[in-house]
Design goal:
Elements (H helix, E strand, L loop, with lengths): L4 E4 L6 E2 L1 H14 L8 H7 L4 H7 L9 H15 L4 E2 L3 H11 L2 E9 H11 L7 E5 L8 H10 L5 E5 L2 H9 L3 E5 L6 H4 L5 E3 L2 H11 L2
Parallel strand pairs: 1-4, 1-6, 4-5, 6-7, 7-8
Antiparallel strand pairs: 2-3
Helix pairs in contact: 1-4
Length: 215
């Protein structure tokens, strides 16, 4: 394996929670008389980081309700709807593949840390990760600083970032890591194509790409 570490994003990359995200934000929009998001493709075209900008773009009025008030409402709804979410197809196989290959796996997410640990325990995948890195709050501003601090402690590592958004690309660039993005998560292929990194339709395609690189 040409990489010593795999840095995984969670939401949308390993965890297929796009539907939960749409249901949660649409409930909030509907309750406020705002236009809802029609389908997954429409959602993938508007979703962005930081989440506060995404909320602003889809119509939330921060003068009426600050982001800090809206964020916990979304989390409560998401925790309910995401109980029906599962790992993406290919996720379990890839996690086991890297484990067999002896590649260290890191989970890096903009989710609040305790919430993240609870999710991976529920999914039965916590044993796959040497380190789990999440935020100290629910506001999902950025995980870049967590990645930079990890890199400072692991200067000799050869990491690969696997994610599904522009934010994952930004993280990879910040730590001088290669990046591959899957296009069945939270952002559309059209958006991800702007960044010039490797794109894959799903995790099975990521596996094929990795095996071809290691031949």
């Amino acid at each position: 394996m040409i990489y010593t570490h795999i840095i995984w994003d969670f939401n949308g990359t390993l965890f297929d929670d796009v539907e939960a995200g749409i249901l949660s934000v649409n409930k909030m929009l509907s309750d406020r008389g705002l236009k809802t998001i029609s389908d997954k493709e429409a959602y993938r075209r508007v979703f962005k980081f930081p989440i506060i900008d995404y909320y602003k773009d889809i119509g939330f009025d921060f003068d009426a309700e600050p982001y800090e008030v809206l964020a916990p409402i979304w989390v409560e709804l998401y925790n309910k709807y995401s109980l029906d979410s599962r790992l993406h197809e290919g996720a379990a196989e890839m996690l086991e593949y890297f484990k067999r290959e002896g590649v260290t796996q890191i989970l890096l997410s903009a989710t609040e840390l305790n919430m993240l640990k609870g999710q991976i325990k529920y999914l039965g995948i916590e044993r796959c990760f040497e380190t789990v890195l999440g935020l100290g709050n629910i506001h999902a501003y950025s995980k870049r600083e967590l990645a930079v601090e990890w890199r400072r402690k692991n200067p000799e590592a050869r990491p690969l970032v696997i994610g599904d958004t522009e934010h994952d690309f930004d993280v990879a660039r910040a730590i001088d890591a290669e990046c591959v993005l899957v296009c069945n998560g939270h952002q559309s292929r059209d958006i991800l194509e702007k960044y010039g990194c490797k794109l894959c339709d799903d995790l099975y395609n990521v596996m094929e790409w990795l095996k071809s690189k290691n031949r």
